[in-house]
């Protein structure tokens, strides 16, 4: 009987440690996703076709939704909302180079959120990270379409 209680206590302790370590990561994720959304908004202005612009704006909306979803998780854990820092100005000099940069960033995020999925101790967080990672993968797979779009 004591062993069972001890295992439950250890599980709760480990979960508490996980949540405390997750808080600064969620802050980073919220900030990053807001910055990514702004990046895509700027990139859309350079899109050569309406189809390309619409797709890029969809990416921007997805990234903003990720930030909202992470903000909700942050609130559930801390009881308060995270106040993001002002966003960095977005400067894009070359449309195609920006697309290449985004493919690398999206695949990096895919891996990062996949790792979070594997560590998450409950279904809510597992679902959050799985869904986010799936959308990041979709972005990385769809960006090559934009190389083919010409005005």
Describe the structure.
The protein has helices spanning 2-45, 50-78, 95-119, 123-148. By secondary structure, it is an all-alpha fold. The chain has one domain (2-148): Ferritin, core subunit, four-helix bundle (Ferritin, Up-down Bundle), CATH 1.20.1260.10. Helix 1 packs antiparallel against helix 2. The chain is elongated. The model is unreliable at 1-5 (pLDDT under 50).
Order of helices and strands: HHHH
Shape: elongated
- For the record, the CATH class is Mainly Alpha
Distance between the termini: 72 Å
In helices, the fraction of residues equals over 70%
Low-confidence stretches: 1-5
Largest sheet: none
Taken as a percent bin, the fraction of beta residues is under 5%
CATH architecture: Up-down Bundle
* Total domain count: 1
Content-based structural category: mainly alpha
**Rg calc:** 18 Å
Q: By CATH's scheme, which homologous superfamily applies?
A: Ferritin, core subunit, four-helix bundle
